[in-house]
Amino acid sequence: MVASTLVGMLCAHLLCFSGMFLLISRRLPGNRMGMDVFAVGNLLLAAAYILQLVEGGPAWSLMSVVNHCLTLAAPIAYLLGAMRFFGRQVRLWLPLAVFCMVYGILQWLVQSQFGPEARYAMLAASATLLFFAMTVTVLCGTRTFAKDLRAEMIFFACLIGGICVLNALKFLKITEGGLDALHMDSRFQMIFYIYMSTLATIVPPSIVWLVLRRLTDSLRNMAARDPLTDLLNRRGLTEALVQYFNGRNAAPAYLLVLDVDHFKRINDTYGHLAGDEVICQVTALLRAGVRQGDLTGRIGGEEFVAILLDTQVADVLAVAERLRATIESHPIHITGVDAPLRCTVTIGISSRFYGANRLEEALREADAALYRGKAAGRNQVGLNPSVPPFAPSCA
């Protein structure tokens, strides 16, 4: 009676959170972050436990075969949902349908050849292997696809590992004591149901927390980046510099301001869409021209920023000259325009600075150097008086 009550409460939890996941998924534009698939996983697991309640105990029937298929299909759905959460667009219904068909046939073969104990042992062993693979995947994710969610992933790995251990124990009990170990009111089954009920209470809110964190991170990222180029804006540059200078081994930085020469003429001649294409292609060249770890941003219509971290003045001058030469020599292809355009940039360099609070001052210095370069004829590197003059040996 107690076991039936626990399973009934578990089903209620699964169904309620399934409805909540579906409602959340309908509110998420475009990328549903796997919430609709998590809802399907909850429905499958709830259906499996409902069938178990109706069965009342181990049996060989179509209902039992479906129960076993749903029991394993549910974690597979959770795995597919997690893949969607991390940006992998995988199919849902075809893999589940193929799995249920194959596992149903396998159950019939094992039942006919080895008996019911072997079929239930196969379920426990399959669940053990599945949850073990999920645990290892989640732990590996803390170093790869989920670096930003390390604590959360370790938490989920512990929970999934608990299910793995319980299913391994269930496999051992079946092989040693037969189907009596699966009696709903047995001590082991009670522990199993209590653990699953606890998971049904903890895991869904944790998934919602992950979705909320991803949404807030996405909003924060959008607020820190230029929508056209995806480069950092002033806010993003400031936040990145705060993080950098708060590091233990932070070194001084130099700031470069790049301005596309005669950009208004491009807009007036070819239109603003062509101007946007020029901006995007210059952005690609800027990203390719700086070192990994340096910061790139856009702070105006045709004005870009590169912040070179932990470097020497000779390297700064070399990077600035390389960027200028690369953009000058690179043909800019514009939609609807037969001949490629040739653009040039003028670059201003600030003196080195030591903190995020010096960003505005560095921008003023680099702007002043930029306008000196424009006054001198454009398409050149304008230097701050405190920056040594460029020498050919630095190139």
Pick out its properties.
alpha+beta; 2 domains; Alpha-Beta Plaits; disordered C terminus; 12 helices; 395 residues; two-stranded antiparallel sheet
Structural account:
- The protein is α+β, with helices and mostly antiparallel strands and 395 residues long.
- It folds into two domains: 2-223; 234-394, Alpha-Beta Plaits.
- Helices cover 65% and strands 8% of the residues.
- The protein contains twelve helices and seven strands.
- It has a five-stranded mixed beta sheet with strand order 2-3-1-6-7, sandwiched between helices. A two-stranded antiparallel ribbon has the order 4-5.
- Helix 12 links the parallel strand 6 and strand 7.
- The longest helix is centred in the middle third of the chain and has 37 residues, at 187-223.
- The chain is elongated.
- Mean pLDDT is 90; it is low at 390-395.
How big a fraction of the residues is strand? 5-15%
Residue windows where pLDDT falls under 50 for at least 5 positions: 390-395
Count of discrete alpha- or pi-helical segments spanning 4 or more residues: 12
C-alpha geometry:
elongated
What is the averaged pLDDT score?
90
Q: What is the number of strand segments?
A: 7
Write the layout of secondary structure elements.
Elements: H1 2-27, H2 35-55, H3 62-85, H4 93-114, H5 116-141, H6 150-177, H7 187-223, H8 234-245, E1 253-260, H9 263-270, H10 272-289, E2 295-298, E3 303-309, H11 313-329, E4 331-332, E5 341-342, E6 345-349, H12 359-375, E7 381-383
Please summarize what this structure is.
The chain is built from twelve helices and seven strands. By secondary structure, the protein is of the alpha+beta class.
